[in-house]
């Protein structure tokens, strides 16, 4: 029986090797106790441009003689995979097509209305269902088994399937199929430095939490099951032999077990042995943070960590309770922040806007709480996407909290090479209206543009730490400046179009480009910098006193703008002060006071932490603007640490 596994990729420049294919094939060939005669076709796992047809993608597959197609569906690939499935069905009506993955709405009794070309869906772990299904199918035994919904029996109850015990699995996919993986990795790398190899890797399955926004492979609110330590260690050897550019550990709570830190040390050992820099990423344990923090610090020291994500989601107690996230201890997150700050780990917190219970004021408080936690370089503000099988999609939950949503297409960045994804975003609940949601979106980009990207950041830090003006009060006053109002009005108009009208994304069309709203705020601000700072000085002159002119001169000098001064001398020494402020523990304040002394600051032209950029001064202002746009303003969140300011100015 000829079988093809298809999981179209997300990123054209970072190709994830076909773990699902390898996991299923290895389990059948090593662990399954019955014989199935399968002829495995080369899996489809790369990302293709939008103009590449299904016929072209499948050109090396004998579609006419294909017996079975398995597709794994995510937000970014489901539409393309359905097109591919339709093509297969057209060429070969006898090919049996099964769709699985988190984007398949298996609870929906009308699921096959969208999946018109699919013969069955799979809603359980692949090892626990597919081997038995394939055996029965090949031997003409009843294959309408639990975990599978046939198109001919769509109303069948979705009976839970007993999960495989990870500790009992013997077959190691990266080891068992090592030669295939080596061949694919070499093929990808042969295309040049922009073609990166990425690897998915797991040490356990399951998640004890039940956050309503989440669908971790439908494994939420379940007991964690570990793979054997020796099993994981041997797989790490095989994975690192591929010299991957990224190892993504897909556990929901990495760091929860003692062995997890040893796995990190093993990855580091292999990196040194292979003399190849591999980045490692994972989702930290929600409560037991110590080992996850130690892992991040160890990876950071070895240049194997680009960023450490922190899923805070919200800071309001009512909101987190409605999320079913109130069992996650905030004190553990604060400890993780402080340990990471001390070690210099690039931390990126994430909040979700628009959760049930949220409001304009709660959202503003949540963002400024992040500032109080010492997050000033980068944050991620996510919309609440309704994942098909998440608890938030349950009818009872949606009715209880009066959830309304908008159907949009998810684009992370303008002109991104990532596939655009259809998505449902929460846009109203019992606690806020769609008009309120427009304001919440607008405030998001206000804070990102004016604080995270730096227009008023340094003044805000001084106001908070030394003048005891809370960030929220500071930015409420900034929001009333005339030029700020004008800049933000453009954002508000676009957010209104996105939430209440027909705009498919949030991008703002300005100066012959599409802009992320926060980058637009920044760009418009540096176009009007003198006017902005003049208005600021009028508003805050009584608060800042004789330090006002110096703090504004410093704020202007250290951030990237069109003037690009190489050196300035001002009357206060902010170097030690701001170095201390940026490392101050969460919810604490620096005790330093800037010294009143003439101080020289030098701009060396370098920006960025994860990747260093040099923005040289050029006489042609249009060319200089192009440099700023292409190197800085196009960068996505996660990679913006020190990106908008010349950090060398306070290092000297």
Can you walk through the features of this model?
By secondary structure, the chain is α/β, with parallel strands linked by helices. Among the domains are: 2-162, Cobalamin-binding domain (Rossmann fold, 3-Layer(aba) Sandwich); 165-305, 2-Layer Sandwich (Transcription Regulator spoIIAA), CATH 3.30.750. It is built from 23 helices and 23 strands. The strands form 8 sheets. It has a 6-stranded mixed sheet, sandwiched between helices. α19 runs antiparallel to α20. The longest helix is centred in the last third of the chain and has 19 residues, at 434-452. The radius of gyration is 26 Å and the shape is globular. The chain starts with a strand and ends with a helix. 44% of the residues are buried. The model has no long low-confidence stretch (mean pLDDT 92).
Spatial shape:
globular
The helix tally amounts to 23
Helicity range: 25-40%
Distance between the amino and carboxyl termini: 67 Å
Radius of gyration (CA) equals: 26 Å
Q: What would you say the CATH architecture of one domain is?
A: 3-Layer(aba) Sandwich
CATH topology of one domain: Rossmann fold
């Amino acid at each position: 029986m000829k079988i093809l596994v298809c999981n179209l990729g997300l990123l054209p420049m970072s190709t994830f090797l076909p773990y699902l294919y390898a996991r299923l094939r290895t389990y059948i060939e090593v662990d399954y106790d019955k014989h199935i005669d399968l002829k495995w076709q080369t899996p489809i796992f790369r990302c293709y441009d939008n103009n590449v047809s299904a016929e072209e993608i499948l050109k090396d597959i004998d579609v006419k003689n294909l017996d079975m197609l398995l597709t794994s569906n995510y937000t970014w690939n489901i539409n393309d995979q359905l097109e591919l499935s339709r093509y297969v069905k057209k060429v070969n009506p006898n090919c049996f097509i099964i769709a699985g993955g988190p984007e398949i709405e298996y609870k929906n009794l009308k699921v096959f209305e969208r999946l018109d070309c699919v013969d069955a869906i799979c809603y359980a772990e692949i090892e626990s269902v597919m081997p038995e299904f394939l055996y029965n199918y090949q031997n003409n035994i009843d294959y309408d088994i639990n975990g599978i919904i046939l198109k001919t029996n769509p109303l069948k109850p979705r009976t839970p399937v007993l999960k495989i015990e990870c500790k009992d699995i013997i077959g190691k996919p990266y080891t068992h199929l090592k030669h295939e993986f080596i061949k694919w990795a070499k093929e990808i790398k042969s295309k040049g430095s922009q073609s990166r190899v990425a690897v998915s890797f797991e040490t356990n399955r399951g998640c004890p939490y039940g956050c309503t926004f989440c669908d971790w492979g439908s494994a939420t609110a379940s007991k964690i099951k570990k793979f054997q330590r020796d099993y994981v260690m041997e797989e790490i050897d095989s994975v690192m032999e591929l010299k991957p550019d990224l190892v993504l550990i897909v556990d929901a709570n990495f760091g929860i077990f003692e062995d997890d830190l040893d796995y990190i040390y093993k990855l580091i050992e292999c990196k040194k042995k292979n003399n190849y820099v591999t980045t490692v990423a994972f989702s930290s344990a929600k409560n037991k943070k110590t080992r996850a923090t130690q892992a991040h610090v160890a990876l950071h020291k070895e240049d194997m960590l680009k960023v450490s994500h922190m899923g805070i989601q919200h800071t309001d107690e009512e909101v987190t309770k409605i999320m079913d996230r109130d069992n996650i201890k905030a004190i553990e997150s604060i400890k993780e922040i402080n340990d990471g700050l001390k070690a210099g780990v690039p931390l990126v917190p994430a909040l979700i806007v628009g959760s049930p219970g949220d409001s304009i004021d709660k959202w503003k408080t949540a963002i400024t709480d992040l500032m109080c936690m010492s997050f000033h370089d980068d944050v991620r503000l996510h919309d609440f996407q309704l994942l098909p099988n998440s608890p938030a999609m349950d009818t009872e939950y949606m009715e209880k909290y009066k959830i309304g949503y908008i159907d949009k297409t998810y684009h992370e960045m303008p002109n991104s090479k990532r596939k655009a994804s259809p998505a449902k975003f929460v846009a109203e609940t019992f606690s806020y209206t769609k008009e309120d949601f427009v304001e919440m979106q607008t405030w998001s980009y206000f804070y990102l543009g004016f604080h995270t990207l730096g227009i008023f950041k340094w003044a805000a830090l001084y106001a908070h730490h030394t003048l005891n003006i809370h960030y929220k009060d500071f930015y409420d006053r900034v929001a009333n400046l005339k030029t700020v109002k004008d800049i933000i009005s453009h954002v508000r108009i676009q957010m209104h179009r996105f939430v209440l009208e027909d705009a498919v994304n949030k991008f703002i069309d300005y100066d012959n480009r599409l802009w992320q709203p926060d980058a637009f705020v920044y760009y418009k601000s540096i176009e009007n910098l003198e006017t902005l700072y003049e208005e600021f000085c009028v508003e805050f002159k009584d608060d800042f006193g004789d330090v006002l002119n110096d703090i504004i001169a410093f704020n202007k000098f250290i951030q990237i703008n069109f003037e690009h001064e190489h050196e300035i001398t001002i009357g206060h020494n902010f170097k030690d002060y701001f170095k201390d402020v940026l490392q101050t523990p969460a919810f604490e304040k620096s005790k330093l006071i800037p010294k009143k002394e003439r101080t020289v600051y030098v701009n060396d032209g370098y920006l960025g932490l994860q990747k260093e950029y040099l923005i040289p001064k050029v006489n042609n202002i249009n060319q200089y603007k192009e440099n700023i746009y292409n190197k800085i303003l196009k960068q996505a969140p996660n990679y913006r640490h020190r990106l908008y300011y010349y950090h060398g100015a306070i290092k000297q």
